């Protein structure tokens, strides 16, 4: 069966999700395609088939173990209740994070420490020299919740279905030039592409694998709850409106969960979830800020807030002006209330983060000089720089119904005043704000982007994505060196991570130099829990619920 993952169709889904989906509690998020993560796993060593390809072995696991040594005071059993902010919908491609991680597993998992790929349902994988063929070797001991064995046919069904342009994925996944997905034998799945696209390994590897025998003739958009059968650590018992009840999967291939009974309550907004936690109605709640009434496990979200420049519009078509604005911002001060500073569109702990990379640093004197070099000077003493008789008056767009965005935009505006730039703040409701950004009808925009778990970031930086209304490069940034690095990173022989990191380094170095965005901070999130809940290990990359089978309850 030949599959054609048409780029226009995929981009249509990406665009709709990038600008309209509300996948996080802070609603101003602009979402780039980001694969979901899978629970932890250790690999078994077996001999791979010979395909004329080189094997890509997973790095040695450095993440916390899925099951810590059990203290004598902790025993199996008990019940736990969690809060999540999400809509009560059964769409399999849009399940709340907790539900997706509880019910399903992926071919590969995400290393919680650095975001690298590790074994999952596939205990190993191989990539051909030309990066056009990926082979996954499945584990032998995995069963669906109904007791049937996982087979390559399930993987073929999942990837074939999700690669169909008619299937709308949330979050969107880009499978590249996918051609065929084939079950080679009882343990092996082969995936071929017409063009090399190493990023597809991350996207394919992170897809939640679905049971063919349950869903082959079902719509993924709204299956009945009894059809939500996976291989994950929890088994869904009931789904009544905003309350879901699970029990531990005693046959889970990574080890039975310590906690037996689980209840998830869905809330319309974070305030409601926080109130439930404060009133002891739930044991665990994932929020933007710490709840003093509970134990807190903070972690950096895999996303960034950035000041985006419209590089196709004066004065920001001049790199000196962009750099001057970047140097005028005290990013440490902007980050302090909400998260940690960062230097590029990757978290510092990410495996492909280039070494010794830095944005222009806060230096108001140097910023004023750069602005003057670009022809902007305060010639009339009114505090606003002028050029050819026109004042440096620009618009700064931000989302009005996002507390973090509005507060940060106000502070950015104030920090730009000493530079001689007068920013007119445009606070807009979500749809208008995202439309302005997507159509590149802005000067400056305070945006929030999810970070893909693959170093390929052509969505942000490729010249091919610079098309207002249909491309995802919303700054209009174009650079031939960046385009070349994007191509090189996806064509690495065998998609070997060290070589891919080296290939992408010029991209991030050039972006730091050209400054199409000023990366302000990565926001902090907090997994709040009652003190009796143990072994929580939220991760920037694997998420808050990657190790559910390791959670325990103290007496």
Strand and helix map with partners:
Blueprint: H1 7-20, E1 29-30, E2 54-56, E3 79-85, H2 97-103, E4 108-110, E5 117-119, E6 122-127, E7 133-138, H3 152-163, E8 178-183, E9 188-193, H4 199-206, H5 212-215, E10 234-240, E11 243-248, E12 261-267, H6 270-278, E13 284-287, E14 295-300, E15 303-309, H7 319-328, H8 331-335, E16 339-340, H9 364-373, E17 386-387, E18 390-391, E19 393-399, H10 403-416, E20 422-428, H11 430-438, E21 444-450, H12 458-461, H13 480-489, H14 497-514, E22 517-529, E23 533-534, E24 552-553
Parallel strand pairs: 1-21, 3-12, 3-13, 19-20, 19-21
Antiparallel strand pairs: 2-6, 4-5, 6-7, 7-9, 8-9, 10-11, 11-12, 13-22, 14-22, 15-21, 15-22, 16-22, 17-18, 23-24
Distance between the termini: 54 Å
Number of domains: 2
Backbone structural class: alpha+beta
Report the C-alpha radius of gyration, rounded: 24 Å
Output the CATH topology of the largest domain: D-Maltodextrin-Binding Protein, domain 2
Beta strand %: 15-25%
* Uncertain ranges: 1-65
Overall CATH architecture of the largest domain: 3-Layer(aba) Sandwich
How many individual helices? Answer: 14
